[in-house]
Amino acid sequence: MTNTERAEIIKRKILVEDYVYDIIVPNERDYYSLHNPNFEVDHRFLCPVHDEDTPSARVFPESNSWSCFGCKAGGSTIDLHMLYQEKRSGEKPTLHETLKFLEDYFISGHKDTKQHPKMRTKTDAEKLNSNLDLAKVNKKLTLLETILQANNSSIRMEVQKEIYDKLDRVYTLLNKDLILVEDVNIIIKEIYGEVEKETINQR
After folding, report:
1. Cα torsion for 70, 74, 80, 85, to the nearest 10°?
2. Res 77 pLDDT > 70
3. pLDDT tens, 141-189?
4. Within 13 Å, how many C-alpha atoms sit on residue 164's CB side?
5. From the CA atom positions of the chain, what is the Rg in Å?
6. Which pLDDT value is given to residue 143?
7. What would the pLDDT profile of 27-57 be if each residue is shown by its tens digit?
8. Which residues touch 163 (CB under 8 Å, ≥6 apart)?
């Protein structure tokens, strides 16, 4: 079998999401601590090719590909492996080395790539929140951030930091399916109360 034929099989069988979950995240736990990928909720993730604080990379499940809007890297699972390993070791693996690793780990090895990783196998009944509830609460969070930005000058810096730290934690817990939407709504209400109090004090 030629490298071209092997590559086509890999592109069909090995999901970009699986590579991120199984290879990248376990090796970069600190980097992903605040933005742990959960592709069922959000296709964006922190780019593994360059360092960043806000996710600018995105997976495209329809084509099993990825692209970073920050550094412009992207491609298939094969490209992701080559670029990520180059960043880690300073040396880009050859195509043959890349194909062999992906085949050994995902196809011949312990992993059945037709199955989603454990972190993505929850049924709808097992999830803490429905997709509809998540969509609604994410809209509320987006609106809250817009209001915060509009009132930045009226909110003390230390209070701003506390609020944004709280929001980061909320996003992390939502992505990991570790917090109920009802609890997020309570936190949102508390933040609105803090913003109102700050704006009143500044008058």
Report:
1. -50
2. yes
3. 999 989 988 888 888 888 988 898 888 888 877 876 778 888 888 999 9
4. 13
5. 20
6. 92
7. 898 999 889 999 988 899 999 999 999 999 9
8. 148, 155, 191, 194, 195
Token pair for 180? 């109920």
Token readout for 90 is 């300073």
- Phi, psi of 172, deg, nearest 5: -60, -45
Q: Kindly tell me the burial class for residue 77, based on how many C-beta atoms sit within 10 Å of its own C-beta (0-12, 13-18, 19 or more).
A: buried
Q: Where are the domains of the chain?
A: 3-120, 131-201
Least confident of 14-18, 87-91, 107-111: 107-111
- Pairing assessment for the beta strands 44-45 and 65-68 based on DSSP bridges: unpaired
- Phi/psi zone of residue 148: left (φ > 0), alpha (ψ -120 to 50 degrees), beta? alpha
Residue with tokens 């090995």: 14
Residue 17's CB is within 10 A of a number of other CB atoms, namely 22
pTM for this prediction: 0.55
CATH number of 3-120: 3.90.580.10
Query: Looking at the chain, how many residues does it have?
Result: 203
Which residue's entry shows tokens 């704006």?
Answer: 199
